[in-house]
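Archive transcription. Copying these from loose printouts into the bound notebook so they stop getting lost. Printout 1 of 2:
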Amino acid sequence: MDDAALEELRAQRMAELKSQQGGGGSKEAEQQARQQEMKNNILTTILDQKARARLNTIAQVKPERAAKIEMMLINMYQRGQIRGQVGETELVKMLEEIKKTEPKAATVKFDRRRVDLDSD
């Protein structure tokens, strides 16, 4: 598994544990707000304006894919793999890489049986 998938699993598990404990109050809400603010600050420094706009558009259509990209960008930034700002073309390349790793959706094929009563 890659780091982005592990981070996503960890986040899901933490959410499950928090829901099982029956919420947690304002401290957890504050912590989540701080984490969201830190994430937005990092993404603002990493991405240029066009790339940020594209990521926001993707988040509206496919939030899980946008979350994967965000986590991948943050992890790369923390490891020092990103120097400077990521442009829209680099973001598109990252999206294509993620699309290759995602399983393809199963297709359903309808086989309509013809009967003598059909007018076709």
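Printout 2 of 2:
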Amino acid sequence: MLLSQDLIQEAEVTTMLRRGQSEQELAARLERKFADRASFELAEDELEALRVQINSQAFLTAPSRLHADVTALNKAQALKDAEFQEWKARHRKHPSVLDKFVEFSQWAHGKRLAVFLDYDGKPCFYCDAFPNPKQSVGSRISSGLGTLAPIVKNPDEAFMSEQMRLAVRDVAKMYPTAIISGRGREKVESFVQLQELYYAGSHGLDIVGPKLLTRICLQEENGGMSFQPAAKFGPIMTEVFGQLSEGVANIPGATVEDNKFCVSVHFRNCDPADHPQVEKIVQDTLARHVGLKMSRGRKLLPAACWALQVFEVKPMVDWDKGKALQHLLEALELHKSADVMPLYIGDDRTDEDAFKVLKAVGTGCGILVSTKPKPTAAYYHLSDPAEVGTFLSKLVEWGQDEGNGWHKNVHCNGWTPIYSRARSDPQLSSQAAADDSP
């Protein structure tokens, strides 16, 4: 649906401006309207025109110009929608899993699903519609939302909606469910607030679960489980966080985020003239330690994109989201079962490691969240977080039917479905145990 039809009301915006409301107040109002529409991706020059007009309060004297601007924005959106539809038509091997849900359910029939989710993804609308005025138009990107929650200007405010939280909770009752994120594990847990999930933070370098006990390389911690393949780097990363925090303390706009096994230095709010100084501080800090590496950003973005300007310092270990997924499957004792079908949903380039693992084993299914044409190892796609929520709800609905393999086989190390026919049928449970015996 186009912008003028359901995302913005001309009279409402004009009234707000006539009442003297600030650009920030208008931005907040618009952000709420666009919060559920990850497909709202506009051409950069059209966004710049809108921003300039708002800044100059041109609508106060010529409110009729709003209609022309909205029309122009609609045309830009229509072109992007057409491009995306063309990509979908060309790449039929990545169809919408909602459009092909009957096909998906046939593939999943009799399987025990395990669900893995990325947390947040792309920048929010505010970052595009009201960009850093020090950045040129050509240096900006269009944006949307990620998998479960948006990336916002302040990384500590990437909250998921209550509706999405309930959807994830319902999925976790029926299938073992994990969130694998580049963020610090404790931070993701604080955002999601669901104790029944498995969490893998720092790109899988810090894994915990709900009272999970296994026979492989796991340690009991507070009644749960813990696995940290880079545990020896913990004290070093704490030291790095302190050094970087002290190093950028006098640079306006620079912030340092402690993700436990990944320290992120954000410079999106800095003066561009200070960027080289921030990078030098990171490089100098890196030179003091052995076994660390630095990467820039989490996505394949232009270097000048202010919304995701970040340096990340991480341990130099052979570990990624794909290996974290494999580890969790082993910990759950699901990795050797032919009736297990892992699903991974994500929108970040780092999620491709998980997609590739599932593609290689041939028994899993990757689902890319994107409204932009891009190469991927995923099998299906979803357009935005709203569709992710819809798909999760459909998984719960489908899971109550006989096709859900968890009804016949509940064997899983440390996890039991809350809703399962096999739980109340000793004969089914005994048969499941026999089927999984070596």
